[in-house]
Amino acid sequence: MSFNEKVWELTKKIPKGKISTYSEIAKALKNPKACRAVGNALRNNPDPINTPCFKVVKSDGSLGGYCGRDPKKIKIKKRKLSEENIKVRANKIVNFKQLLHRF
DNA sequence: AGTAAGGCGGGCA
DNA sequence: GTGCCCGCCTTAC
Fold this sequence. Notes:
With 103 residues, the chain is mainly alpha-helical. The protein is built from five helices and four strands. The chain has helices at residues 3-13, 22-28, 35-43, 71-82, 96-99, and strands spanning 20-21, 56-57, 88-89, 92-93.
């Protein structure tokens, strides 16, 4: 199993209505410093349907990017989050700490 | 407080 | 094998 597959698996494991961060995923992969690699893996997301990359945000609760830092896609990200009872305001997750899922 | 730059892990040409 | 790209993180200014 390659690194990105692990990233995707973890991303899929995020419960509905919850989110996680790049560094949390990196830690779960035993590579706390691999946060960038996580972003890279999600960027190469081969299966956006089963891999809810919109549930992965930055460590400060801001959304970060989505499909290549495309502002239009980030809008979709926001809406997707709100569809799971995750509120987004000013490009940040509301109640971020409570919604944060730890592996 | 906002901005800049360095470092890091891993994928890809 | 090398170099460059990143949806980042952290530190320094």
